[in-house]
Specification:
single chain; 255 residues; alpha/beta; Rossmann fold; 7-stranded parallel β-sheet; 8 helices; 7 strands; globular
Length: 255
């Protein structure tokens, strides 16, 4: 039995679990025996993903359709997930949105909506889960950042700010929750082929630019990110907290 298979078996909440990176993270965790609760604004997508994961992996895969920025909905979702999974020892915050709008055109509404989903929700979902996380040994939180956590993009200031914020929140929560045995880390993907990036990935010249920027000469898959998340959620990363793992094929390794 591998070390990953010997990792905690408590349930994990995965926000944005209905598609893309979130869905891949839920599956990767289920593959090593962890029950998962997939939360997504698209409830049908979350339900379909959960059914597929349960059938393939033989673990409990629960799903809920909800807005992770709605505090009352999150409180209800925590209770439902706890009952379904029998205990919650992990959170992966993969829910995210992006709106391309530079500062000349940026509105307060766009700024607030992006920050609420990408950053604020991680903090308050984690807060809602603290009682559960503190009651289970080996609990961990992983936030999904971006290469925009470490560089800037002039077209997406709101997204860039939110993802820089994920790194700051990771360090803050790691310091606060470390004495409770709760580890907090972030994974920062590069160019990944997901529904969020479909417009870019479906355009051959745009995709070629992404490939050219990566020394590994390919774009990433959701599974590339999910494997990194699974490691950080496992006992193999038992002495890793407050860190940011960039998974970008080397994009940020050069100018």
């Amino acid at each position: 039995m591998s070390a990953l298979e010997m990792s905690p078996t408590t349930g994990v909440v995965v926000t944005g679990g209905g598609s893309g990176i979130g869905r891949a993270c839920a599956r990767a965790l289920a593959e090593v025996g962890r029950p998962v609760s997939l939360w997504d604004l698209n409830g049908e997508g979350a339900a379909e993903a959960a059914a597929s994961i349960a059938a393939d992996c033989g673990v409990i895969a629960h799903s809920l359709g909800l807005d992770v920025t709605d505090g009352a909905a999150v409180a209800d979702a925590v209770a439902a997930a706890r009952e379904a999974l029998g205990g919650i020892g992990g959170l992966v915050h993969a829910a995210g949105i992006v709106t391309a709008m530079d500062i000349d055109h940026l509105t307060e509404e766009i700024w607030d909506s992006v920050l609420k989903v990408n950053l604020r929700a991680e903090v308050f979902v984690a807060k809602a889960l603290l009682g559960d996380l503190r009651s289970h040994e080996g609990s961990a939180i992983v936030g999904i950042g971006s290469i925009m956590s470490v560089v800037g993009n002039p077209l997406i200031p709101s997204y860039t700010a939110s993802k820089h914020g994920v790194v700051g929140v990771t360090k803050s929560l790691a310091n606060h929750l470390g004495p409770d045995g709760i580890r907090v880390n972030a994974v920062c993907p590069g160019y990944i082929d997901t529904p969020m990036t479909a417009l870019m990935m479906d355009d051959p010249p745009s995709k070629a630019v992404c490939v050219e920027k990566a020394p590994l000469r390919r774009v990433g898959t959701p599974e590339d990110i999910a494997k990194a998340v699974r490691f950080l959620m496992s006992d193999e990363a038992g002495f890793v907290t407050g860190t940011t793992l960039i998974v970008d094929g080397g994009v940020t390794s050069h100018d």
